[in-house]
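REQUEST ID: PR-0412
SUBMITTED BY: lab tech R.K.
PRIORITY: routine
TASK: structure prediction, single protein chain
INPUT:
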Amino acid sequence: ITPSMATNTTFHVRVHNIQARELHIGDTPSSSLSPYIKCNFDNFKNFKTETARKGNTHQWSLDIVFFYDTRYPDKLSQKNFTIECFSSRLLGSDDFIGSCAIDLHTLASGPVHHDILLRDGPKPSGRVSFDVMMEQYAEITATLKDVEVREISENIVEISHNETYLAYHYASGEKADAKEAKSSKCVPSMSPSWSEMEQLYMQATLRGLLSGGVSVQFKQSKALGSDVVLGAAMINIAGFIQHPHAHPHTHTYMGPFTEPLVVSRNGRNVAIGKLTGTLVLKNVPGMAQMTGGVHCELGVKGGKPLLEGIPAPAQIMSEDATVPGVGHQVMTPC
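STATUS: complete
OUTPUT:
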């Protein structure tokens, strides 16, 4: 699956772990029903579960993954993920049990886990719980500017006789990106520098960016044989995104960096110099889901924002409030 990010805001979506309990149609209890779930994601994606066996609680193995595109990220609160629950019948039309709807802004900015009351019109008809991962996903451009290698160790004598360059790629807790960029080669020098360098393109979520960085290798060019890695540095991205914007568009961040260049010797990292410069990040996602917590029909309880200042759900429950159907227990995503 590949996202389309030319003009749209793109979200990576996963719907799974759907369960239902306390279902009923009038006086007909859950144990007599054969339920299944139909899902409509903003008329963009429709899917349904298989029919469950009769019982008091029901769980489905459905696990759907897709990319959702929208040109109007400011209107996510006007778009819905709708769940309808039916009971299958051998003859005649299936019986409607109940439904619920969650706006996409709450999905994209709130917890992964949801526990929602089903209603048939005004009447409660059971509860449904499910997990929705909905993370804004973008192709980010990283540019290194005014980069210099300083305070090079005197042990790196051969640097004054060979050209050097930088090779760099994006690496995070999610993955190591195979796309690598390189600087131009610098004439032999004990303080090589580059004013402009090749841009690095990386596809990531805001959560992925905060756990990752730009991995840089300082290399020596060899006429014969493989080039030699003189040292390596990691530019952590989290430090550049301390003051996020409170709306769902993508953003630009820029700041200076100074990182140690190290090389492994006898099982230890030994510093051989410093890497300095400026990092510019463009098209950084503006939304991310909360860590932990649960969303119910009354709002969000117990979720922690990934970063202070990013978009949040409209309804936040107080700390002493009880989540209907869950009690005081705040469930976390699987």
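NOTES: Residues 104-109 form the longest helix (6 residues).
REVIEWED BY: pending
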